[in-house]
Amino acid sequence: MSDGTGVDLEARLAEATTFDPPESFVEQANVSEPGIYEEFEENWPECWERAADLLDWDEPYDTVLDDSDAPFYEWFSGGSLNAAYNCIDRHVEAGRKNHAAIKWVGKRRETLTYTYQDLYREVNEFAVALRSLGVGEDDVVTLYMPMVPELPIAMLACARIGAPHSVVFAGFSADALATGMERAESEYLVTADGYYRRGNAFNLKSKADNALLDLDRGVSDVVVVDRLGDELSHYLGEDQHDYTTLIDGRAGETVEPVSRDAEDMLFLMYTSGTTGEPKGMKHTTGGYLAHVAWTSYAALDLKPTDTHWCSADIGWITGHSYSVYGPLALGTTTMMYEGTPDYPDRDRIWEIVDTHAVDVFYTAPTAIRAFMKWGERYPNDHDLSSLRLLGTVGEPINPRAWKWYYKHIGNGDCPVVDTWWQTETGGMMVTTLPGVNTMKPGVAGPPLPGVNVEVVDRDGEAVAAGEAGYLTVRKPWPGMFRTLYGDDERYIEEFWREFSDDADRSVYFAGDGATVDEDGYVTVLGRIDDVINVSGRRIGTMKIESAIVGVEGVAEAAVVATDADAAGDARVYAYVSTESGRGVDDALRDRIVDRVGDRIAPFARPETVVFAPELPKTRSGKIMRRLLEDIANGDDLGDTSALRNPETVGEIESAVGDR
Ligand code: WT7
To answer: Is the CB of 527 under 6 A from ligand 1?
Structure first.
């Protein structure tokens, strides 16, 4: 196999630590001028107009950034626009009504295509329907829906009438839904009867009904999408409406997009994370949309002619930003897939990429490691030559997984962007620009032009190259969350206090540990709270995990510490899954322990290594360390409803028992 430069890809992959984007990619890239970094720096914050220029504004803004009340920043003040207009109408007006906006693939291989005209029509109908139910501007509408086209349609219908949406991931419990609705004081709910998961019909409506029983203030109206038809009958209570009946009653009706101030709320997103109280992140119309459109353009290199697939669930920020708002703002075709990657078989993703000639594919390292574990024969069965760019997000990617992705999915021809960002940041912050920068596997890259990231020590001083520190952002950015809904105090406390002084609250602490190299490339080490104390020393679990996944045959690792003793010392527990077909024996266990000793330090060596077929993950693919900690400590497991693969818990408990 050759990478186009004539050099054997196999050999290069084994040795190289840097990779340049192929010439053919650079030639066609949306952004290819290296000078863009300087240009943005010299011209900050006006540089962000380049992002705002990707949008159509009803009223032009008069100030790019208003920082008079930091950290309550305002972007593009005085401007007004409508997000749905930007994602739909303007493409129809530009003569692209028959271009595919959404391509949806169901679990049974059925496909639905919504052109921009189709989307225009249905979003309008549903917007009219929502209004007729009484939804007014600024009323929060909660969406508790699986991966059906009606989810982005409902989001855009809300945006059209200026009603912020609050999407609660369908895998979450009734409790989480009720909490989200209470906190957002949301009186409207759009949900579905159910959805398919691995071939089985799953009841969502009953969970929603349970949540509604818990609401103190009750609910005004509920709209139910009938996904399962005869497979699951559902009952519509008082003030509950069938989605299709509602829109059929409004066939062909339209509503003027409501002009929203740039700073008006576009949506709320409650994150529960793996610990702690739910936080309602408030995102706004102008800054958010500009940021996600710009990063879709500059980092994902999206063109209107592309078919883009971000495999995240739309219930997460990744899906909001890079399945819905970013790609649609640019007039691209965005893919949605209802099913799971391994059903009916482990080549499902590649079959879809092949069938739909996907150009840009964006997924999470945890998925890539699963693909790697399943083996290359699954992608090899398909023609993946339509791919031009690959992306990852959500957690650190180890170099081995990066290289596997680059080789077996990208065939050495596609740049890989490792994008660091958060629900809080709204859009990408740190990544290589694929048409500009050299890539380093395992290293996210430099901050995007105009983004000011610094890795600092406890005193807020920049660390030397290669030293671990805290990831901070020292200038605001357009896509940033504006507050935690209803809790300005906590917004300041949690994100702006740590590294800012009293006079100046302008340093954002992301909660992640990182290092930065001589070239200014940032390696994200993971959440700072995933730091354990062993033998009196603090060490990031991520460091130990990356040593372990470097062992031949290991697919994934999660390291936790058991309860600390009086001196604060804990024992290191490693949970390890192996590549498929790889047997588990003491020799492997020894190699793991030795490698940690060699690579890091003897004190960091895991005292216990537990082999498990799979590690427990949240729906967004984050390993549930809290749960693994509880297992290691023999504690009560508590709520496991946020897990994507609850069956792993029993397997791990019995593996621990066998030790
Ligand atoms: C946390 C944010 C942003 C969309 C997905 C998750 C981790 C994210 C990377 C990356 C290393 C990453 C960080 C971050 N993270 N991207 N490329 N390399 N770590 O959003 O649930 O808000 O999680 O995910 O720890 O803080 P989220």
So the answer is: yes
* CA–CA distance, 121 with 114 (Å, rounded to integer): 10
The answer, yes or no, to whether residue 272 has pLDDT greater than 70, is no
- The last residue of a domain, from among 220, 235, 258: 258
CATH number at residue 231: 3.40.50.980
Atom 12, ligand 1: residue with shortest CA distance: 395
Distance 355 CA to ligand 1 centre (A): 30
Q: pLDDT digits over 168-182, tens only?
A: 999 888 888 999 999
- One-letter amino acid identity for 448? L
For residue 312, give the ligand 1 atom closest to its CA. 5
Provide CB contacts within 8 A for 196, sequence distance 6+. Answer: 106, 107, 108, 202, 227, 228, 338, 339
pLDDT in tens, 465-516: 988 889 999 999 999 999 999 999 999 988 998 888 766 778 999 989 899 9
Indicate whether 413 belongs to any domain: no
Tokens of 497: 């206090």
Mutate to test the pocket of ligand 1, among 310, 418, 448, 524 (most ligand atoms within 8 A of CB): 524
Q: Which residue has the higher pLDDT, 326 or 109?
A: 326
CB atoms within 10 A of CB 597: 15
Q: How many whole angstroms from 389 Cα to the centroid of ligand 1?
A: 20
What is the CA(420)–ligand 1 centre distance, in A? 6
Site to substitute for ligand 1 among 422, 495, 620, most atoms within 8 A of C-beta: 422
Residue 393 gets which letter from DSSP?
A: E
Flag whether 582 is in a domain: yes
Instruction: Please check whether residue 404 lies inside any domain of the structure.
Output: no
Q: Is 422 in the pocket of ligand 1 (CB under 6 A)?
A: yes
The rounded Å distance from CA 394 to ligand 1 centre is 4
Q: How far is CA 168 from the centre of its chain?
A: 14
Among protein residues, the one whose CA lies closest to atom 18 of ligand 1: 396
For the purposes of burial, counting CB atoms within 10 Å of the CB of 92, is it exposed (0-12), middle (13-18) or buried (19 or more)? Answer: buried
- Total domain count for the chain? 2
Q: Are 222 and 191 in contact (CB under 8 A)?
A: yes
Q: 546 CB less than 6 Å from ligand 1?
A: no
For the CA of 526, the closest atom of ligand 1 is 25
Nearest to 555 by CA among 365, 312, 411, 410: 365
| Cα angle: 76, vertex 81, 84; to 5 degrees | 130
Q: Measured between alpha carbons, how far apart are the two ends of the chain, in Å?
A: 44
Is the pLDDT confidence value at 6 over 70?
no
**Residue 2 forms part of a structural domain:** no
Q: For the purposes of burial, counting CB atoms within 10 Å of the CB of 322, is it exposed (0-12), middle (13-18) or buried (19 or more)?
A: buried
Range of the domain at 639: 530-658
